[in-house]
């Protein structure tokens, strides 16, 4: 993180390269360059179980989209549980992880959704099983609504959808959207160590921070140290927070709840009972808004259930995809 907020004219070409991004066991990174946009992508190369190449060939494409302040590393715990079923890629949204800022400085939900759409169109991997958390959930909702041809199924973990009465614990995050607040907060916390920052984030995002292993804590601190060197990190976070707030206030066809109603893809909704950022009470409204939905509630989970309870989330995603596959085969048989 940095106390510097950069103007919208910051481009990918001027973004500095800092310490190497952590790559977990079995993971690889690649960079995708599009006009005005460069995206870092995390994936797990295929390893056929018992030499079963046919099983690998049947894996369906999937894309994972992280939340505000996160990165593709947020999916490292979940992806191994689904790699025999999904050919998954996790993207760093523009300005996060190892993806530099976009040339146009657009960090709105629509801007992030446009980046995801451009990535999918360029790779020709759609339709995909689209999986998003928090900000990534609102981005995925918008993608599924405006480009149904790109989405087979939709999984949303604590999606950032408009709430009339946000929890008090979410107010500081919303305040980052106010111009100047991010710069002020950076100054006030300049003496905080990376570990102090990480523990603060974990206490906010996890239902029980004690579930984080020592190795996981070290990895998070290492990543925080890396981010502290990025001159655009605070700016990307503040502008993306502003994008969420703006999306919450939009009316008409651009309203996220209205777009949720337009989603055609079978949808899995995952909510944590101890989520301090997205209220647990929104689960029922979301289940009613998405026309073809199923709901997984994890009473002890916080905001990042895919990191706290990856096995439970993976099991629900697998059930959704198998159900979708069965339904798709029935539809083809009946046509």
Task: Give an overview of the whole structure.
The longest helix has 25 residues, at 310-334. It is built from 13 helices and eight strands. 41% of the residues lie in helices and 15% in strands. It starts with 27 loop residues before the first strand and ends with a helix. Helix 4 packs across helix 10 (256-262), helix 6 (181-188) crosses helix 9 (233-249) and helix 7 (194-205) crosses helix 8. It is an alpha/beta fold.
Helix and strand arrangement:
Blueprint: E1 28-34, E2 37-43, H1 53-57, E3 60-65, H2 79-82, E4 86-91, H3 109-123, E5 128-133, H4 135-146, E6 151-157, H5 171-175, H6 181-188, H7 194-205, H8 214-228, H9 233-249, H10 256-262, E7 267-272, H11 282-289, E8 293-298, H12 305-308, H13 310-334
Parallel strand pairs: 3-4, 3-5, 5-6, 6-7, 7-8
Antiparallel strand pairs: 1-2, 2-4
Helix pairs in contact: 3-4, 4-10, 6-9, 7-8
